[in-house]
Amino acid sequence: MTSRQRMLAACRGERPDRVPVSPFGLGHLDPKGPVAAELIRRTDPFLTVGLGGNVFAGSAVEATSRQEGDETITYIQTPTGHLLQRYRRTDITGATVEFPCKNADDVESYLSIPFVAAEPRAEAFLEQRTRIGDDALLLAGIGDAICFPATILSPEDLCLLWMDDPDLLRACVEIAHDRLLDYVEAACRAGVDAFRIVGGEYATEQLGPAGFAALVQPWDRELVDVMHKHGALAYYHNHGYVDTYLETFADLDIDFLDPLEVPPYGNVDLATAHRRIGDRVCLVGGLDDMEVLETRDEATVRQMGRAHLDAVGHVSGFCLGGTASGTYTEVGARNFMALVEESQRFCS
Length: 348
What we know:
By secondary structure, the protein is α/β, with parallel strands linked by helices. It has 2 domains: 3-59 and 115-347, Alpha-Beta Barrel (TIM Barrel), CATH 3.20.20; 61-103. It is built from 15 helices and 12 strands. The chain has helices at residues 3-11, 34-42, 104-111, 122-132, 147-152, 155-164, 166-189, 201-204, 208-215, 217-229, 246-250, 270-277, 289-293, 298-312, 330-347, and strands spanning 21-22, 46-49, 63-68, 71-78, 81-89, 94-98, 137-143, 194-198, 233-237, 256-258, 282-286, 318-321. Strands 1-12-11-10-9-8-7-2 form an 8-stranded parallel beta sheet. Strands 3-4-5-6 form a 4-stranded antiparallel beta sheet. Helix 2 packs parallel to helix 15 (330-347), helix 6 packs across helix 7 (166-189) and helix 14 packs across helix 15 (330-347).
């Protein structure tokens, strides 16, 4: 089987020729370098490409930015004044350190910005899909509707708004969802055939089951339905302690679920998770990119990978993968490739 055939077989309830070994993305590898090429050729990776545009704010937002040291300071214009955002960049990563909305009034101001829909740029996806062929499964990365309030409010202020003004938060999510559906419909019509959905963990990790049920579950199920209506795959990403959510995720009718973090980094037992929902969702994960694949010696990684293979078996509904950290180097890449050999031995 090719990598794409192998991953689709695992997803569709068919037993592949071997368990797919599926790194997510290329980490810190040079995407045009020889190690990345070897990783793509030897493993069964999920790769992503963006579709461009601001799905939730649209293309008519007026903003100005300036640089102060390692911070980018942005002023977002609204009909009631400006909102301030600060983004800090280090040699390793970057993060928003001051969010544009601090309270309900700021959220109302942000929502008052005139909206002009952004158009998905599917050309980059289609070009890369052609280049990759069957050596990987290419996904268009999108955030679900809760990403809108969760990226204009700090984690603390998102939680406070859920307590203080849940109706406003629901309204914000509903507006974002309507805009997202139009965007995804357009992308599907342009030929995008697989999506990676992020955002659910803003609820599972911060707001709990009630928050997920109100702000994520109904909207993401409808989002997945739209993708499936066009024959597109829905790959779902949700970090954290997700054991209690497994059936809830499966009820979204998604095709893949990552990263399935096992102790001590999460609370999922892969074999148990596969018994619970492996006939409904293809589970992707098991080995932490940063704490295992990037730091352990090859023999240890092989042993840990083989333990997961022994526990789950040569079955459909499982890809042995990492945790989608996006930070691994050639060390992690070599360990992913070693796991392919373990999968081949195990399945033969």
